[in-house]
Amino acid sequence: MDDILRLHHDAIVCDLHVDTLQRIAKGESLESHGGHLDLVRMRQGGIDLQFFAVWPDPIYQPRQPGEADRSYARSLELIDAFDRAMRENPTQVTPVQSAAEARRVTATGRIAAALGVEGGHAIENDLGKLEELYRRGVRYMGLTWNNTHDWADSAKEETLHGTRHGGLTKFGEEVVGRMNDLGMIVDLSHSAESTFWHVLRVSRVPVMASHSDCYALTPHFRNLKDEQIRALAAKGGIIGVNFYCAFLSEEFMRKQMAAEELHKAQLDAISEQHPYDFPVQSELERVVLRAAMGHVPVTAKDVVDHVEHIVRLVGADHVALGTDFDGTSALPDDLQDAAAMPLVTRLLHDRGFSEADIRKILGENVLRFFAAVCG
């Protein structure tokens, strides 16, 4: 083992966001499966603390008048799947709800696993359901996914249709306040700019973007502009750099958007044919888009470009990793799964980052932030 690989496996490595629970909930094993991340590849990649996203696809919301909202029920199903995976692998992985617990677990050689909700529609406009999610172990919640809902604007819908709420409604402010009271991290990935700035005005504690990149490098609506990065850092927050190619590379983004428009009918048909199976949807979409786009090179160097941009803006204390494994159809050529994570450390070293800053980026920033907000 060379010195860089030794550093990577000695450091605490944290990943703020994966969608692997979509696979676990349909019966696949956390120990080994066909996606981007499982226990085998987490070990190979040196991951010590993994946050698993509880994402209730908006398809669980009412589609016709009179239908029940099943977003909260779906969230509980995913948490149940997480709990089963923890029980099935007790010698390898342990659920945690604080930074102190994470450090204790990783010191034993086990992987620490935590929960975050992706999409505030999960609580169905009910603070009691927010509190129950916290009781079940959820320690962060993204206020939106791509869908604007009853109390917060999303980045995608604000970009396409304009703001509905001007950020947060009064109830949205109450949600943020209750999250602050509980010690639940507010996550602004997927949030509209209006929501972002509204949250920074009303949150009493630091907030984060769990899986977002830099708009200055790739002008995608999901990425953060420099003034947002500076403001988030000034409040003590962190940004988890996302590995999704369309957020990392402007060329990839533009070619994919063109392919999506050209093949919209085919992509819509895939969604209709597999409405409750995100892993299958994602793989079929990947096949369609790759055939249309051809190969657009994106590599781990692009990931490190976004890391470096954040460091130049606000220093090394505010950047982390939020891979989006199992939540994307397009990863860098040399970062196809969790086993490849040591490459990020090697490239950071090659760029001249100090060992202390590498350790911060890999995980110490997450643990510090986790402790500050959640106790």
Cα-based radius of gyration, to the nearest Å: 19 Å
The assembly state of the depicted protein chains is single chain
Q: Are there runs of 5+ residues with pLDDT below 50, and where?
A: none
Count the domains. 2
Secondary structure class reads alpha/beta
Shape: globular
Name the beta content range. Answer: 5-15%
Number of distinct helices: 17
The number of distinct β-strands equals 9
CATH class of the largest domain: Alpha Beta
The description of the largest β-sheet is: 6 strands, parallel
Q: What is the H-and-E element order?
A: HEHHEHEHEHEHHEHEHEHHHHHEHH
Distance between the termini: 36 Å
Helix fraction? 40-55%
Could you name the CATH homologous superfamily of the largest domain?
A: Metal-dependent hydrolases
CATH topology descriptor of the largest domain: TIM Barrel
**Could you tell me the mean pLDDT?**
97
How would you describe this protein?
By secondary structure, the chain is an alpha/beta fold. It has 2 domains: 323 residues, TIM Barrel, CATH 3.20.20.140; 48 residues, no CATH class. It is 49% helix and 10% strand. The protein contains 17 helices and 9 strands. Strands 1, 2, 3, 4, 5 and 6 form a 6-stranded parallel sheet that branches. A 3-stranded parallel sheet has the order 7-8-9. Strand 7, helix 10 and strand 8 form a beta-alpha-beta unit. It is globular. The mean pLDDT is 97.
Could you provide a short overview of the structure?
This protein is an alpha/beta fold and 375 residues long. 49% of the residues lie in helices and 10% in strands.
